[in-house]
Amino acid sequence: xxxxxxxxxxxxxxTEVALRxxxxxxxxxxxxxxxxxSALDAVRGGEAEAAFVPIENSVEGxxxxxxxxxxxxxxxxxxxxxxxxxxxALLVRPGTSLSDIKTVSAHPAAQPQVRNWLRTNLPDATWxxxxxxxxxxxxxxxxxxxxxxxxxxxxARYGLTAxxxxxxxxxxxxxxxxxxxxxxxxxxPTGADKTSVVLWQRDDHPGGLRDLLGEFAARGVNLMLxxxxxxxxxxxxxxxxxxxxxxxxxxxxxxxxxxxxxICLQVRYLGSYPRADMSPADVGxxxxxxxxxxxxxxxxxxxxxxxxxx
Length: 310
Fold this sequence. Notes:
- This protein is α/β, with parallel strands linked by helices.
- The chain contains nine helices and 15 strands.
- Strand 1 (4-8), helix 1 (14-19) and strand 2 form a beta-alpha-beta unit.
- The chain is elongated, with a radius of gyration of 22 Å.
């Protein structure tokens, strides 16, 4: 049996489309799961080699379901990311017109991306959330709802008609997906990488977040995502999900993580992996004083001072 990848299903999701852009997907058995949680649990339980799930979109930011699953439970690690441009179609059963639509469905992350279109064209329709956009299409096929916002490619799979296409409130909207597996040695750096971590403060105090961010700033490490998530330990208790430029093998990133480990209650490393939005040729030089050579030179100088050779 070929190794398998779990993904947010059912068939016909944007997640499946993004997953199939990975060359290695052609050599894996692709298995749809009903939720992000069940796909990630398949990896934790050894049923799948990896899971492919959405983690961020350019309209609403982080996908909280995925972030919370990576924050809690048995540790997992991100190995790849994919960016997919997103535009929706309004899928209906054949013969349905706009005036017939009383209920619409899609994944909750889709609602902010079609809110204005919905207000203008279907102001009286009731929104019903689904586990995925393709699942919403399946529920329309079964007669549960009148219409679904999903990819136009899902229409044929579920015997539906695309009543409207090219629906989006924001131009150039994208969703970021990640390939998640069990912890292992990160892939070698490419020169255009990203490192993801989750941070828990030791206590709540003035300037606490500044202290965490200062570890990045002092070493010239740029942040790409910062999102707080409740820990479940009571109102006001949060952890921080962070994406930063660079790879754990970069001295500036490694020393940032060491600094965070010293001051945080807990640090969860989620992986270092190639960026999907940039090639190594597009990456500029690090800030002065933050290159690997400069870190090495500074460490050598300290060693000479300790030996009395300065």
